[in-house]
Automatic annotation (TrEMBL):
Residues 1-130 form the PTS EIIA type-4 domain. This is phosphoenolpyruvate--glycerone phosphotransferase. It comes from the Bacteria. GO terms for molecular function: kinase activity. Homodimer. The dihydroxyacetone kinase complex is composed of a homodimer of DhaM, a homodimer of DhaK and the subunit DhaL. Keywords: Kinase, Transferase. It comes from Pectinatus haikarae. The lineage of its organism: Bacteria, Bacillati, Bacillota, Negativicutes, Selenomonadales. It catalyses: dihydroxyacetone + phosphoenolpyruvate = dihydroxyacetone phosphate + pyruvate. Component of the dihydroxyacetone kinase complex, which is responsible for the phosphoenolpyruvate (PEP)-dependent phosphorylation of dihydroxyacetone. DhaM serves as the phosphoryl donor. Is phosphorylated by phosphoenolpyruvate in an EI- and HPr-dependent reaction, and a phosphorelay system on histidine residues finally leads to phosphoryl transfer to DhaL and dihydroxyacetone.
Length: 130
């Protein structure tokens, strides 16, 4: 089963996005790495690495990130992973809320890593108005 990691500068945002995603896909493995180790605003590559490792059940991990430096921290965290795991951890180029919900639902259906990642990417094109 593809795991999901939500990375945000804010613990509250990461946990809120997780809460929304799990409303649609109860029980799916979704992990968060929000804020810094001391609870402040920011990102922590070590916390992100730990979330990636926890989310991995053997089928890969899709990571959602909120802002530019979170993306950089995800890259640093991937560099700290075992190379085999790093190969199947994918950062989605998608909006964090819509992408996380779509990816979590897709993953909960047992879809492949590639399909979950594509579903997250497709969330970029969601129309919100008629």
């Amino acid at each position: 089963m593809v795991g999901i990691v939500i990375v945000s500068h804010s613990v509250k945002i990461a946990e809120g996005v997780k809460e929304l995603a799990l409303q649609m896909a109860k029980g799916h493995p979704v992990f968060t790495a929000g804020g810094t180790a001391d609870g402040g605003i920011g990102t922590d590559p070590i916390r992100i690495q730990e979330a990636m490792e926890a989310a991995n059940s053997g089928d890969g991990v899709v990571v959602m990130a909120d802002l530019g430096s979170a993306v950089m921290s995800v890259g640093l965290a991937k560099e700290m992973l075992d190379p085999d795991l790093a190969e199947v951890v994918k950062l989605a180029n998608a909006p964090i809320v819509e992408g996380a919900i779509a990816a979590t639902v897709e993953a909960s259906m047992g879809s492949s890593l590639e399909k979950v990642l594509q579903t997250a990417h497709d969330a970029r094109n969601m129309d919100k108005i008629d």
